[in-house]
From TrEMBL:
The keyword Metal-binding applies. Belongs to the cytochrome P450 family. It comes from Streptomyces fragilis. PANTHER family: CYTOCHROME P450 YJIB-RELATED, P450, PUTATIVE (EUROFUNG)-RELATED. Pfam families: p450. PROSITE patterns: CYTOCHROME_P450. InterPro entries: Cyt_P450 (IPR001128), Cyt_P450_B (IPR002397), Cyt_P450_CS (IPR017972), Cyt_P450_sf (IPR036396). Keywords: Heme, Iron, Metal-binding, Monooxygenase, Oxidoreductase. It comes from the Bacteria. This is Cytochrome P450.
Length: 407
C-alpha cells in the first residue's frame, strides 16, 4: 500500500445493523471515497465508501475475485468462504461461461411468467397462518419457506433436500472462518454432498427444470466439469433463498417496528409496493459487514477515487455505505418508500450483477403484498431487543421473527 491516511480503522467496521451501515462510514466518506483500512484477516485493504467509486470498482475487470481464492492469497477480513470453482469466484471468460448457462432461466420474461406460481406459494403459506392465535415465528412459517420453495421449483430440487440446505446454509456463510474444520468449510462440504446426490438423480431421471438443463449441458457439451456443475447448483440454491429470506424478514421487522406509518401506507394502496421494494432493498441493510463478502484483489495497477491501487492490493466495496451516499440519494438515511430516484447497488453491478435480481424483486413484492393485505395490523410479539439474530454470518439474519398476526 502506498498512500497514507491520518487514521487507519479496522474492517469490518463496528456498528453495522439491519437498519444502517456502520456509522463510521459517513466520516470516512468525507475523508475520501477510497480509504486505507486494516482488516481482521490481517492484511490492509482499500475500502470503497462512495457510490460512484463503488460502481466503478464493481465493474472494473482489473479488480479480480479469482485472485482472492488462489493459493497463498491474502486473507481479507469480512470475507465469506468461497472456492475457485464457484461462479462468485470467477472472472472474465470463465465467469461468462457459467453465467450463460443459467442466464436463460433468469430472463425478465421467464421470471415474470413465474409470478402466478410465486403468488400461489405465498398464498398457500399465508393460508396456513390464517386463524393462528398467539405468537407466530414469521421466519419459520413464511420468510424462509417462501423463497426456498420458489428456488426449489425453479431448479427442480425436492423439499427434503432444500430443508437440508436451509439447515446448513448458515454455516456456509460464516465470515472469516476458513480453517480446515471450520463451520464454514464443513457447511460447504455438506451442501456439496447433498447436491451431488440430486445431480445423480437428475441425470437418471431428468425433468423440465434448470438443474436438469445444467446436467444436460455438462453431459452433452462438456461445458461444465462435474465439480463446477455441483458447485454451481448449490450456489444457485443458496443465493436464491437465503439472501431473499433475510432481506424479507429484516424489511418486515423494519416496517412494523420503526415505520408503522409506511406499513399502513402500503396497506392503503398496494400498487405502491414495487417502488417500496426498491427502497427496502436500498435502506434495509442486508450485509453484516456492509459489503457483500466478496473482496477483490487488483490484477494490475489502477487508480480509483484519486488513490493509486497497486497490483496485489486488496479492495473491499462497501455496498451498504454506497447506498447511503448523499451525493446520489436525497436524505439518504431516511426510509422513503415513495423514493423515485433509487439506483441502489444492492444487487451489485458489472459482471457479477445478481442473476436473480428480478426474481428477488418479485418475491419481495408478492410477500409484502400478501402480508399487508392479510395482516395490516401485524406487530411484534416481543420487544425488538428480544428478537434473536444469527451472529457471525455475511448477512444480517434473523433467527426468529415472533409476531402477532391480527388478521
Amino acid at each position: 500500500m502506498t498512500d497514507e491516511v491520518q487514521e487507519t480503522p479496522t474492517f469490518p467496521l463496528a456498528g453495522s445493523s439491519y437498519r444502517c451501515p456502520a456509522p463510521q462510514y459517513a466520516r470516512l466518506r468525507e475523508q475520501g471515497p477510497v480509504v486505507r483500512v486494516h482488516t481482521e484477516g490481517g492484511v490492509d485493504a482499500w475500502l470503497v465508501t462512495a457510490y460512484e467509486e463503488a460502481r466503478q470498482a464493481l465493474a472494473d475487470p482489473r479488480l479480480s475475485r479469482a485472485e482472492t481464492v488462489k493459493p497463498g492469497a491474502p486473507r481479507i477480513g469480512g470475507a465469506m468462504t468461497s472456492s475457485p470453482d464457484m461462479i462468485i469466484s470467477m472472472d472474465g471468460a470463465e465467469h461468462a461461461r457459467l453465467r450463460r448457462l443459467a442466464a436463460g432461466a433468469f430472463t425478465a420474461r421467464r421470471i415474470e411468467a413465474m409470478r402466478p406460481g410465486i403468488r400461489r406459494i405465498a398464498d398457500g403459506l399465508l393460508d396456513g397462518l390464517a386463524g393462528e392465535t398467539g405468537t407466530v415465528d414469521l421466519v419459520e412459517r413464511f420468510t424462509v419457506p417462501m423463497p426456498l420453495t420458489v428456488i426449489g421449483e425453479l431448479l427442480g430440487v425436492p423439499m427434503r433436500v432444500l430443508r437440508l440446505f436451509a439447515d446448513n446454509a448458515r454455516d456456509f456463510v460464516t465470515v472469516d472462518d476458513q480453517s480446515e474444520n471450520s463451520d464454514s468449510v464443513n457447511g460447504m462440504a455438506k451442501l456439496y454432498e447433498y447436491m451431488t446426490e440430486v445431480v445423480a438423480e437428475k441425470r437418471a431421471h431428468p425433468t423440465q427444470d434448470l438443474l436438469s438443463d445444467l446436467v444436460r449441458a455438462r453431459d452433452s457439451g462438456d461445458r461444465l466439469s462435474e465439480q463446477e456443475l455441483v458447485t454451481f447448483a448449490f450456489t444457485l440454491i443458496g443465493a436464491g433463498f437465503d439472501t431473499t429470506a433475510n432481506q424479507l424478514a429484516s424489511s418486515v421487522l423494519a416496517l412494523i417496528a420503526h415505520h408503522r406509518d409506511q406499513w399502513r401506507w402500503l396497506a392503503e394502496d398496494r400498487t405502491r409496493i414495487p417502488r417500496a421494494v426498491e427502497e427496502l432493498l436500498r435502506h434495509v441493510n442486508l450485509f453484516s459487514t456492509d459489503s457483500a463478502g466478496n473482496p477483490r484483489i487488483a490484477a494490475e495497477d489502477l487508480e480509483l477515487g484519486g488513490v493509486r491501487i497497486a497490483k496485489g492490493d486488496a479492495v473491499v466495496v462497501a455496498i451498504s455505505a454506497a447506498n447511503r451516499d448523499a451525493a446520489v440519494f436525497a436524505d439518504p438515511d431516511r426510509m422513503d418508500l415513495a423514493r423515485e430516484h433509487n439506483p441502489h447497488l444492492s444487487f451489485g453491478h458489472g459482471m457479477h450483477l445478481c442473476l436473480g435480481k428480478q426474481l428477488t424483486r418479485i418475491e419481495l413484492e408478492i410477500a409484502i403484498d400478501g402480508l399487508v393485505r392479510r395482516f395490516p395490523d401485524l406487530e411484534l410479539a416481543v420487544p425488538e431487543s428480544e428478537v434473536p439474530w444469527h451472529l457471525g454470518g455475511i448477512n444480517h439474519a434473523l433467527h426468529t421473527l415472533p409476531v402477532l398476526l391480527k388478521p
